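Q: For a teaching handout, I want to show students what a protein-ligand complex looks like in token form. Below are the inputs, and the small molecule is magnesium ion. Please produce the holo structure.
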Amino acid sequence: YRLNMEDLERGEELGRGNYGTVTKVLHTPTGVTMALKEIRLELDNAKLNAIIMELDILHRTASSPHIVDFYGAFFVETCVYYCMEYMDGGSLDRLVNVSFGETVPALHPAPDEQQELVWEGIPEDVLARIAGSMVKGLKFLKDELGVIHRDVKPTNVLINNRGQIKLCDFGVSGQLEKSIAKTNIGCQTYMAPERITGEHQNTVGTYTVSSDVWSLGLSIIEIAIGQYPYPPEAYSNILAQLKTIIQDDAPTLPTDRYSPDACDWVASCLVKAPNGRATYAELLQHGFLQRDEAKAHSEGGDQVDMAGWVTRAFKFRDAKVVHMQAQAATAPVHPG
Ligand code: ATP
Ligand code: MG
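A: Here is the structure, written as tokens, with magnesium ion included.
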């Protein structure tokens, strides 16, 4: 049966993107907490219906543990709404956009506990688990649904308190893609060089599955270092930044914190020529992810403690929010 607005009780706003808002909602008939995404579009009913029908193929994605569950879509007036699995950790950018070594005062530390929390970045085994989950999610979309994601970036990688990593916002509806004016590309682009130049028009327009592999590599570096990988001077001018992506060497993982294997894996995503990039199968076969796979199946104590890592990351984030609020409250007020 169809979801509708009357059955949804609105909670807090979870975030805002370029095209709409995501709100936490309670589906009252079932008691399931969901994330409701609202996309404002000026479209006629025929187009809106086409979008709802295309989104409905998402009902088949429930079988991947690396794709957020889809509960249904509907429209009200000219807004498209869809309900997806609520991920209590939000998107990865919110969790990890912290500088390595940053400190904040701990919230309510016990007397024998550290008074200060230090951000120690993402350990390699956690990074490998994130990368592996993303590759499996992307491969599932392509193999099972014939879908290219088209918007791989840290805000579209979600995490929950069990440490599960899932992708959202993939390009499942051609009509929706067409209707969302891609005029605002934002000041940080994850687009592969060939999308910027318009070269290599093979599969779908300028977009090939390997364009997602580029965005994946860039996202993994951002997650590892806690910031967008291209230098900030490029932010001021979007054209300068696009030029940098096309002309300069691709960014790399910091070699002092990650193994040659990890660095090599990321480098194999960030090859400038699209057909030179690794495929999903190759990325999964690579030593960096094979070691993670072995840990996932090991009987002994060699598991990756994702839930433990997420708990520490939440703790740091909560302490940082309180710290920043306190700082803002005590900041001197300038007249005028
Ligand atoms: P863009 O508009 O460029 O795609 P975005 O991905 O940040 O940017 P939205 O997709 O609208 O924009 O999402 C806004 C924010 O809502 C995200 O950054 C994320 O933090 C949060 N969010 C999205 N989906 C969920 C979800 N299923 N569970 C919890 N939080 C979510
Ligand atoms: Mg998004």
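A: Two things your students might notice: The mean pLDDT is 89. Strands lie at 8-16, 20-27, 32-40, 70-76, 79-85, 103-105, 116-118, 157-159, 165-167.
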